[in-house]
Write a structure and sequence with these properties.
heterodimer; A: alpha+beta; 5-stranded antiparallel beta sheet; B: alpha+beta; Ubiquitin-like (UB roll); DNA polymerase, domain 1; 2 domains; 6-stranded mixed beta sheet; 6 helices
């Protein structure tokens, strides 16, 4: 690892002013499970000069219900979210997603804010010492287009970049309709991800940090579910994952939200599936049609058409589980 | 904020105090020192192994304030003021810990490279949950890869150790 500077901060304001002082040349470190790996492999377009450690800020790992919503501090650990009784009961998809993220060791380090902000795992992007100068690093080519693209996007590219977002908690938070509060603004989590510029994962400015995650209380007769397909159940990043939340009105669906991830540069909201099930009963036939509709727009690459089958199956499973 | 010195090349070195296996060590380290390297190279505690260095294999598992973490993904800087327990610290003086004894009894290793990580993860589980089920044990060691044993004897050893706690 090349040398860098390291600052411990005691408040969020200190963290923001430290970021401002470095004018884009510093990054935040919380759990560190993603950024330490990036430093090791030297996979930055521009290597940060400094890391600002926010783990030293007290009382940011809270999980509480307040003002009619669930509030999660940016330093809440994935392991704590996975085993929190309140989240398991009312915000099921989020607890399940946190529980299926990585291994227990990484969940003990990794935070919820880090999980939603993490960089992609594209193996060309992550190839050590910036071996591939891909679009995400300011280059001109996406090596996945003609190379090994079995884990890449099935819904097209963002400015030719085919990498996918690997977060497990992001689709769960989108299905639950969460908001991200940053040091500057409050964003719907679906708008939190950068849609135009592949060099950035999120819309966060250089001097902006996540300060809270807010999940509205689900309606009384609603349920949520998260499902993930990965090679090894115990640790791997998702091949495809999916989270759904459905509010029922008697036997029929009143409203629904379905979100896939690891299929596109950003979490992919399966709007067509969600719209299709409204007003219908959740049976095998309905969910199959919804899943087919959601994947209608898929444009698989040379080696990843199999992800379509998986995505359909996960949409069906999560929707049926919300009955 | 920890105090630091700047060397001739302009690289900052920081003074940190880390508790390891019950003793406190104050050292001057670079910001890019990983906990696993701090333990192995500065403290000569080579029981903690360096495996994949990506957080995948779990060979470098240590307890940080009682929780199992991958020391290859933790900056030593971030352990300032925290308590680390390594495989050496689990042992009680010259005597093996019950988990270590049961690993020997059940032949829960072959090449042995994953063993210290397995033992730390298992011990962390038993400290939290003295009556684990087979599933609990498998989940606790989900972040530890073993390419030799097929895990069966490891799980049996941990369950057996739990009975004698």
């Amino acid at each position: 690892m090349k040398p860098f500077k390291h600052y411990d901060v005691n408040t969020l304001d200190e963290a923001v002013s430290a970021l401002q002082n470095f004018a884009g040349k510093a990054k935040i470190i919380a759990g560190g499970t993603d950024i330490v790996g990036m430093f090791k492999d030297e996979v930055f377009a521009e290597r940060p000069e400094a890391l600002i450690n926010i783990k030293t800020i007290p009382n940011l790992d809270y999980i509480k219900e307040e003002d009619g919503m669930l509030k999660i501090g940016p330093l809440a650990l994935l392991e704590d979210i996975a085993h929190d009784e309140l989240i398991k009961g009312k915000y099921t998809a989020l607890a399940e997603a946190a529980r299926r993220t990585a291994s227990p060791h990484i969940r003990e380090m990794g935070t919820i804010s880090g999980n939603i902000c993490q960089q992609c795992r594209c193996w060309y992007f992550r190839s050590p010492n910036n071996r591939f100068n891909c679009i995400r690093k300011g280059g001109e080519d996406c090596y996945a287009e003609e190379g090994e693209n079995r884990y890449h996007s099935i819904f097209g590219n963002v400015k030719d970049c085919l990498a996918v977002n690997p977060s497990d908690t992001a689709p769960a938070l989108i299905a639950l309709g969460a908001k991200v509060k940053t040091s500057k603004r409050v964003l719907e989590i679906a708008d939190f991800y950068e849609k135009e510029e592949p060099k950035k994962t999120t819309v966060l400015d250089d001097d902006e940090i996540v300060v809270e995650i807010q999940v509205p209380q689900p309606a009384a007769n609603s349920k949520s579910k998260f499902e993930k397909f990965a090679i090894r159940k115990s640790i791997d990043f998702p091949i495809v994952n999916c989270a759904s939340q459905v509010e029922m009105d008697g036997d029929t669906v009143k409203s629904a939200r379905v979100c896939l991830n690891a299929v596109f540069a950003n979490p992919y909201v399966a709007q067509k599936a969600a719209e299709y099930v409204v007003g219908k009963t959740l049976d095998e036939e309905t969910v199959t049609a919804a899943a087919d509709l959601a994947l209608q727009d898929a444009k698989p690459l040379t080696k990843n058409a199999y992800k379509i089958t998986i995505a359909k199956s996960l949409i069906k499973k999560t929707l049926l589980a919300c009955k | 904020m920890s105090s630091f010195v700047v060397d001739k090349k302009g690289i900052k070195r920081y003074a940190v105090t880390i508790g390891v296996n019950g003793s406190e060590y104050t050292k001057v380290i670079k910001a890019n020192t990983l906990l696993v390297n701090f333990l192995r190279e500065d403290l000569d505690l080579t029981g903690t192994k360096r495996g994949c260095e990506l957080g995948d294999c779990g060979c470098c598992t240590v307890m940080m304030d009682g929780k199992p973490v991958n020391s290859c993904l933790v900056l030593a800087m971030d352990c300032d003021g925290h308590e680390i327990t390594t495989a050496e610290g689990i042992q009680d003086g010259e005597d093996l810990d019950i988990v270590q004894e049961k690993f020997v009894e059940h032949a829960a290793f072959q090449c042995g490279f994953c063993t210290s990580g397995m033992i730390v993860s298992s011990r962390a589980l038993l400290n939290e949950n003295p009556n684990p089920t087979d599933h609990d044990v498998r989940e606790a060691i989900a972040g530890n890869l073993c390419r030799c044993t097929g895990y069966v004897n490891i799980v049996a050893a941990v369950l057996d150790a739990a009975k004698e706690l």
